Amino acid sequence: PEPPKKPSNWRRKHEEFIATIRAAKGLNLKDGGKLPPPPPPSYDPDYIQCPYCQRRFNENAADRHINFCKEQAARITNKGKLAADTKGKLPTRTQYKPTPVKKIPSVGSTPSPSSRLPQPSGVSKTVVGASSSKALSSSGSSGSKIQTLSPAHK
User: Compositionally biased, Polar residues: which spans (predicted)?
Assistant: First the structure.
């Protein structure tokens, strides 16, 4: 027992297609005239029209869509009623204004240790144990030379 087959409507579709092609061939766009109105859309008689959005679907899709569209239409009408009721009211949002942060300038502030850039220091860099007038100091038998930084290298 197979389900009965629906009658084919290929001939009607074919005739609509031929009519559309003939109408397009007769159209001359080089004249610059207005376009003729488009042909009316052809509706498949097997399709079911949605009562909410007027679109057409096959049986399975129509069952699913009509339930969905019914809920959406109910939501949209409720939103429209709420928007109409609140038009006369003032907005309930409050504008937030944070209190300004007061910065106290410090005279001898040191840069934060998290900074990766080299920061100038107020302390002169001299090597301990060496005189600033001497460039080299050779004390002891180890032979190590200790240098002081010249003002040009600071």
Answer: 107-124
* Token pair belonging to 15: 């005739």
Q: Identify any residues that bridge with 56 across adjacent strands, giving them in sequence order.
A: 49
What one-character DSSP code corresponds to residue 96?
-
Number of neighbouring beta carbons within 10 Å of residue 4: 6
CB 148 within 8 A of CB 130: yes
Q: Would you place residue 6 in the very low, low, confident or very high pLDDT band (cuts 50, 70, 90)?
A: confident
Cβ(74)–Cβ(80) under 8 Å? no
Q: Which pair of structure tokens corresponds to residue 21?
A: 């092609």
Q: For 100-136, how does the pLDDT look when each residue is reduced to its tens digit (9 = 90+)?
A: 888 776 666 555 556 677 767 665 555 555 454 444 4
DSSP state of 73: H
What's the rounded Cα separation, in Å, for the pair 74 and 67? 11
